[in-house]
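Predicting holo structure, coproporphyrinogen III bound.
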Amino acid sequence: MNRLKNDCYLRALLKQPIDYTPIWIMRQAGRYLPEYRTTRSISGSFLSLCKSPELSSEITLQPLRRFPLDAAILFSDILTIPDAMGLGLYFKSGEGPKFSNPISCIADIKKIGVPDPEHELQYVMNAIRQTCKELKNALPLIGFSGSPWTLATYMVEGGTSKKFTKIKKMMYREPIATHLLLNKLANSIIEYLNAQIKAGVHSVIIFDTWGGILTTNDYESFSLAYMKKIINNLIHENNGTRIPITLFTKNSGIWLEKIAETGCDSIALDWTIPISDAKYRVGRKVALQGNMDPSILYAKPERIREEVETILKNFGYTNSGGHVFNLGHGIHSDVEPESVRIFIETVHKISPKYHRST
Ligand code: CP3
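Done. Tokens:
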């Protein structure tokens, strides 16, 4: 692999010395950008953007043309796997994702197979190859997947949920069937992420958006155990370069020690835990990512700057990386792009003093 011009993000994750704290933003390509809204309206739908390697690559690059971000993230979605399993993904405006053939019984689970990433999901691999070509080694490209548990919630609920009644009923009444589903998903995710790594991504993230709705015991057996299995089966190096793995479980502040034991390189935090507490609890075992409340971007510039300084100060001085700045969840679609610029520039401007060794 050719050397990247800016590898600050990868160095931070691998706890190597850096000059400043790198930043990328969850959902950095998306509806808050007018150029995204234009491309989306021309293409007709969000899914047609994901399924076109040219458009996916174009949208991945849009925020990088505006802002000095330190990483690109593949423009796609976590629900590509269930779609490739035949569940029929579609998006209803204002209601989020939906499946026309959700999973409702063990017979449905037995029917689904493990998608071939270079066949049913080849459009994702082509988007990665196209994006790598366009990036010309300027920045690392992040690949991603949903966690087995989070994908299962969408597949069983048939879309976004508030109470998670169906998946919890299945989990408590049919635990063996639920484990069969989670195992098929874990095997699919292993194949999918390994194919993304072979196609050129420099780092991967597993998004476990809904792990935080579980009890501690159920989190360990229905979510964390499968993320651990995935980590154990991922390619950890490509052409001699290490591929750092990040886990994000929203609302997982109480489980950080357990997450750090999975073998991941980094934990992405939501905004509910002070990053100083998280750092104290995981020590130098893993890097941390986060963790500004996305709603701070509605504030005036002084308040945004103040929050950035607080988080940097809470993480503290480091002469060996370990912190990637980010929001604690996706950016809201009605944030002003100008506030995003102030946010990124502030991280770059004030973080060097937390890295200088002299
Ligand atoms: O970060 C990035 O810029 C990469 C792109 C990305 C998207 N989805 C694009 C997207 C990533 C990393 C995701 C992951 C994803 N998708 C997650 C995990 C992270 C999280 O947010 O917790 C989840 C749970 C999904 C499922 C999903 N996809 C939902 C719930 C929605 C609706 C969201 C909304 O605000 O309406 C989507 C659609 C989606 N995925 C959009 C984008 C830009 C909005 C599509 C549009 O209307 O144009």
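The pocket of coproporphyrinogen III is lined by residues 26-31, 40, 46, 73, 75, 77-79, 96-97, 144, 160, 207, 209, 330 (CB under 6 Å).
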